[in-house]
Amino acid sequence: MLVFPVMSTFAVGVDLGGTNLRIAAVDGDGNLLEKVTLGTQVVKGRDYVIGEMTDAIKALIGKYSTKLELQGVGIGVPGIIDKRTGMLRESPNLPGWDDYPVRDEIERRLSTPVILENDANVAAFGEGWLGAARGYNEICMITLGTGVGGGIVIGGKIWQGMNGMAGEVGHVTVDPNGYPCKCGNRGCAEQYGSATAVVKMAREEIDSGNAPEMAKLADGHSPNVEFSARAVFNLALQGDAAAQRVYDRVGSALGILIADLVNVLNLRMYVIGGGVSAGWQAFAPKMFEELRKRSMVYAATAPPDEFIPIGAAAMVESKQPPPYRTIVTRALLGSDAGLYGAARMPMTVKS
Amino acid sequence: MLVFPVMSTFAVGVDLGGTNLRIAAVDGDGNLLEKVTLGTQVVKGRDYVIGEMTDAIKALIGKYSTKLELQGVGIGVPGIIDKRTGMLRESPNLPGWDDYPVRDEIERRLSTPVILENDANVAAFGEGWLGAARGYNEICMITLGTGVGGGIVIGGKIWQGMNGMAGEVGHVTVDPNGYPCKCGNRGCAEQYGSATAVVKMAREEIDSGNAPEMAKLADGHSPNVEFSARAVFNLALQGDAAAQRVYDRVGSALGILIADLVNVLNLRMYVIGGGVSAGWQAFAPKMFEELRKRSMVYAATAPPDEFIPIGAAAMVESKQPPPYRTIVTRALLGSDAGLYGAARMPMTVKS
Q1: Within 10 Å of residue A212's Cβ, how many Cβ atoms?
Q2: Which of A176, A259, A296 shows the shortest C-beta gap to B256?
Q3: Nearest residue on chain A to B171, judged by CA atoms?
């Protein structure tokens, strides 16, 4: 008798950031086969970047499709995507990519189905597959990067909303008279929870004359905001009061934001990722204090110990026989969440 | 050849309010067959109220099940329902109903399947079936009554969240340092958008000495807060500045709340109902101004004329070829939304 073994599968995930272009082949069980990192040479234009990307994808497909069955290609992009047309609608970090059939062009060059998705949504999907929210079908992910993004997963699928603009949690109002935001609002969560905001609030502390340690730091400051946000965090860890005041404001804003999300969505799992989430120790106490005060839904369902170790959410869950626990925890996969999430997308499409 | 006509269907919907107990037989096409209104004699206790309710339901079932096939009984209840057990978890207006198998007891007495659901969720479902959101599968309804409640419909189904607590839009923070709320938070939407809040803010205007007309009104004030909120609205319509200031605060808070909801959910349809929605003319201009400013998602998708006549949402939609329009409109069915929504629930359950 001849036995035809069932072929294992793989997919290619792409994280097209404003700085790095990362491409990975991932198998159906979530094992990384290979990862390629290129600089995103945005200045060389759209066609150049797409060419670099498709060349690298083709190389990976060529290498692995002899042994594994290709499921497709998923690409996470910073910006709003029109899912019908496969075009970018707003993408400040990729100038000149609007009104261009990005998905169709990449599909044409690869002769393979391609799924485009907003990067924050993709990260939520990745953390749900292999990260902090592994095994959860309802997830809200908040990404604290240069800005604040978000992604919502409902029923195991990315919740797009009407036109792909769902999950804009960074623009939820946490203080109606607060800092102006470029979106036109005041007091958006992004104005308090992003790396840019940490640096801005640190600058205010320095200008007030009450932050001598931060002032020293600022003399040799880095142009990279995520790096600078981390430097403020390090000072907070060392007990610097001004740096801690900055992170208390981060925590307070996140507490208000998450309280709103819990009250409206009542999901089981909220994951906080992005560069600023490295400052968890400095902002989490204030965040949980605010969250408990501002959401009775959270207060009724909070785990006894909120400070769940990274990745231990599932354990905490199983220790709590009443199945109603609202978990707020840190992301596990770091910047790889977007890569894994992107690769996962074509694997979950039912044709 | 014998022809067996397919039997038409009906269901019984119940709206169990703190004041009125209303019971209706509704056919599968949404026609009201009969409506019964009883006072909810909460003081006589749970068993008395359940007895009154089941007697009236039995009478309707007896009358209509000879000609129509009964689909079941749906009951809207003020409070949080544990869907697994069919018990009320929190229901301040129905003291003594906690920790009692409400659904099972009603099912036992009727020998018919019963669905219990939170009243704000049921109203959203009713407006989606026959009201302002007719034909929409994704709806958020905000009910401005004594408090502020909410219901979210996703994929044509009530979005329960983890444990039935989703849609608590009344406790979204619209001002982090605002009025204290009994939920433990400050600045909840309910503290600005409910009838209770309108009366409270009117009282503040009177106490400030700048509201002579409202002061006259307050001398003969009614103990019914929804009636009083309407009296303040009538003054605002007559051009009274103090009354308009109160409704501007209502509009401002609702604008912040809906901006948050649009940014997070990106639904097509937001419906505002409940007694205070009668004051639409007085609060809507400020609400839309705030909403447009605070949600870029809304600003990108707002219909050219926001002041959509009641019930005309579908028309507006069809006039806009790009299919992405965020509609914010008034509820159509008034207090009947809960009755129709309750009757609809057993009709949509797939067994």
Answers
A1: 11
A2: A176
A3: A263
- A255: Cα separation from own chain's centroid: 18
- pLDDT tens digits for range A144-181: 998 999 999 999 999 999 988 899 999 999 999 999 99
A184 with B299: Cβ contact below 8 A: yes
Report CA torsion sign: A168, A173, A179, A183: positive
User: What is the average pLDDT score of chain A?
Assistant: 89
If phi over 0 gives left and psi between -120 and 50 gives alpha, with beta otherwise, what is residue B187? left
Taking residues B146-152, what's their average pLDDT?
94
Taking CB atoms and an 8 Å cutoff, what residues of chain A touch B168?
263-264, 266, 296-297
User: 3-state DSSP call for residue A178?
Assistant: coil
How deeply is B279 buried, as exposed, middle or buried, from its count of CB atoms within 10 A (0-12, 13-18, 19+)?
buried
Closest CB from A260, A265, A301 relative to B173: A260
| A262, closest residue in chain B (CA to CA) | B166
% chain A with pLDDT above 70: 91
pLDDT digits (tens, 9 = 90+) for A225-283: 776 899 999 999 999 999 999 999 999 999 999 999 999 999 999 999 999 999 999 99
Residue type present at position A270: Y
Burial track B83-107 (b if 16+ CB lie within 10 A, e otherwise): eeebbbbebebbeebeebebbebbb
> How confident is the model at residue B317, as a pLDDT?
47
Model pTM score: 0.91
Per residue in A7-62, pLDDT (tens digit) is 799 999 999 987 789 999 999 999 999 999 998 788 888 999 999 999 999 999 99
Residues in contact with B131: Cβ distance below 8 Å, sequence separation at least 6, in sequence order: B271, B311, B331, B332, B333, B337, B340
Whether A260 sits inside 8 A of B183 (CB atoms) is no
Nearest to B69 by CA among B7, B23, B13, B120: B7
What is the least distance, in Å, from the CA of A84 to any CA of chain B?
Answer: 11
Number of C-beta neighbours around residue B167 at 10 A: 28
Domains, chain A, ordered by start: 9-127+337-348 (3.30.420.40), 134-332 (3.30.420.40)
Q: Indicate the Cα dihedral angle B208, B212, B216, B217, nearest 10°.
A: -80
Interface test with A, best of B174, B191, B249, B260 (most A CBs within 10 A): B260
> What is the reported pLDDT for A351?
42
Mutating which of A84, A163, A188, A257 best tests the B interface, going by the most B Cβ atoms within 10 A?
A163
Question: In this structure, what token pair is assigned to residue A237?
Answer: 């860890």
ipTM over the 0.85 cut-off = yes
Which of A84, A182, A266 to mutate to probe the B interface, most B CBs <10 Å? A266
A7 phi/psi in degrees, rounded to 5: -75, 135
Question: Is the Cβ pair B161, A259 closer than 8 Å?
Answer: no
